[in-house]
Amino acid sequence: MVGILVLRELGVLIVAIMVAGRSGSAYTAELGSMKMREEIDALSTMGLDPIAVLILPRVAALVIALPILTFIGSMAGLYGGGIVAQFYGDMAPAVYVQRLHEAVSITSFKVGILKAPFMALVIGIVACGEGLRVQGSAESLGKQTTTSVVKSIFLVIVLDGLFAVFFASIGM
Amino acid sequence: MSDEEIAISVRDLVVGFGKRTVIDHLSLDVRAGEIIGLVGASGGGKSVLMRTLIGLLPKRGGEIEFRDRRNGAGRRGVLFQQGALFSALNARQNIQLPLRESAHLSPGLLDEIANAKLEMVGLTAEDGDKFPSELSGGMTKRVALARALALDPALLFLDEPTSGLDPIAAGEFDALIKTLQRTLRFTVFMITHDLNSLAAVCNRVAALADGKIVALGPLSAVLASDHPWVRAYFHGARAQMLHLGSN
Fold first, then answer.
1. Complex ipTM over 0.90
2. Would residue B57 be called left, alpha or beta, if left means φ above 0 and alpha means ψ between -120 and 50 degrees?
3. Where are the domains of chain B?
4. Do A47 and B97 touch (CB under 8 A)?
5. Helix axes A56-88 and A11-19, enclosed angle (nearest 10)
6. Fold (topology level) of B2-75+154-241
7. B1 falls in which pLDDT band (50, 70, 90)?
8. Contact between B55 and A44 using a beta-carbon 8 Å cutoff
9. How much is the pTM?
């Protein structure tokens, strides 16, 4: 139960929400302050495309990092589950590992990890888009950062729901 | 005469946001090799005009033509009001960025060029290692100017180059622009509120009011204009203090 839950849903979802909170807000604030200080305009006047120079690398980094973080997060989740099972359920670690082995299939793992790059894409695009929408003031920067985090967490959860429907329909 | 050659020709330019028209059928010729100063009320569209010329804002109508056929034509340098240096890069890397993106040069050559540009604007090679957050206001402007000059532009746009500088630094910056312009022969389009810089640096002054150029010419000619806003601007109390309005 713990194994399936963590691998399929919780691992990727919690990691995505955390990343939306810390990296997403960082992206928005970073791009927003660049926008405020006219750095983005300066880039355009040099003939550089801000989307290619600023946004693509950031989104690509998230797309690569989120599956890795999801893997680490899931492993940590399973380890935590083991500890709880040992102290509250008096289950020996060896038994836990064996049960896990029986319950968890490679499919659960695949479902979880497959979702990660898409969530990264959503977080990255929302965060960067909100960053570019910042107007001249510090107030707008704060507002846009908040919007970015709220929006990306919301979209990540919606996306997770859509994936659940999708995976159910293809029988994974 | 080469001085009369037109660098930028603007005809019937209209720019606006939503229902508001900021620039209303504006026409202006910028001559090659001159320093033209643009004055106007705050929020009156000076920056909008400049940003439209650079291509950062879309125009609703009219024509903007860059006619300079000299070597390096089409290359434009822009100095933004707050410098707009990339905060993640140090001063030298900031200057090198436009070069790095437009040509494949060896790191050694890039450093040499950047150091030359730093020297040109009165900074030392050591200043190149500083990050924008460690630079003073005047130094930031100088580095930004060096970056704007990195590609040896034929046309330089300056957005309030002396704002936020003390009178001494502003005077030095004015002198720097004038010297560089005289040596490198580029055209300067500059927005300014600094009456001293208008008097010291600009060959011609254009006054922007109600979305149009209401007075254009050497400072003395603009001073003689009887447009109410221009009179209020140049003959107001602050201008009187500089003894500009008295003559």
1. no
2. beta
3. 2-75+154-241, 89-151
4. no
5. 130
6. Rossmann fold (3.40.50)
7. very low
8. yes
9. 0.76
